[in-house]
């Protein structure tokens, strides 16, 4: 909350300086902030204010700000930078960031910027890969160790070719054909005898990822193994690049955001205060789907209109039956979707997951059903009403467990994202079945 207050205060101060036409002071003030805070302030200014301020920011500072922005914010900012200057700015950022920025431009514009970049040879190969793949996330590798080097030679090699300690998370070893054959930790290198060879101390079992692997798979590997870096290779194990943990942090956030949005049936690019027409278009489709499923639930209720008319008290408890089932189903589906995303649950484990969730649903259904049944008897003085509510609650909690497991598994089997609107389909199942159980039992036992 402190960071948000700092940014809000900073944004207000920059706007005040710009209103006084003191752009130089506004630019100087940004320099006093952390690059992440300054990037947020710049991103939240309107187009005119951004344009004025960017003219007063030096290229190196602007490069720092771009590295702290997401892709949408970068796209807004680079609109105000001419091609020649953008080339100088991108020379100061990491190659993978430069590739992401160039990916926001048209091919013609990107070509013009690349033609003016000193680091074009490092950046251009990264543009061959989609931005949401390992190849799109990686940075080109620097000089690598060889097996025949001694430890003493390796130290001299590192002093010659490396200046940034962040580049030395792991030391990868290549053969003369550029194939990845091992990895050496700094700890092993420091503790080794100076006359030992790298081939003697390296670990030949290197975990790698292919360049075409989805970014979610890459994020899972970092999470599972706690890596600081991960090598990217082609089909023949030639080293293509390195992904660092800093590169993957935004991916983890983006993937989590995507799952949350899709659970609600929303486009992952949706933003607060995005254009009304665009926001309406992205949300309307799933709202219409939800409307159709709501009519299905209403159709089930309409089958029992005469029962509700004769036992009006049933209407009082219908939201409880449907609501508890929906909540239980969302709990189950959330756990299943997250387990699938992290690779902790495979498709062939569906029956194991079903047994577990059905057992849990039955226990929860009995406990909640008893509570609601007791309340119904004490409130309405009708023991049979309590039986109807209790049994219906158990039945709907079982449906919630089944739907919470099967809907994500089915979407995964069909090759779709299991988070894709699972909530809409799940609440439809619990509403329809919950109303059918409750009103059907009411018809049998209360009339």
How would you describe this protein?
The protein has helices at 2-19, 23-31, 35-44, 47-54, 59-67, 71-78, 83-90, 95-103, 107-115, 120-123, 134-137, 151-161, 186-191, 198-201, 215-225, 245-263, 276-302, 305-310, 314-341, 350-380, 383-413, 422-446; strands spanning 145-146, 171-174, 180-184, 209-210, 229-233, 239-244. It is globular. The strands form 2 sheets. A 3-stranded mixed β-sheet has the order 1-2-3. The two termini are 57 Å apart. With 447 residues, it is mostly helical. 66% of the residues lie in helices and 5% in strands. It contains 22 helices and 6 strands. The mean pLDDT is 85. It has 3 domains: 2-137, MgtE N-terminal domain-like (MgtE N-terminal fold), CATH 1.25.60; 145-244, CBS-domain (Roll), CATH 3.10.580.10; 276-446, SLC41 divalent cation transporters, integral membrane domain (Tetracycline Repressor, domain 2, Orthogonal Bundle).
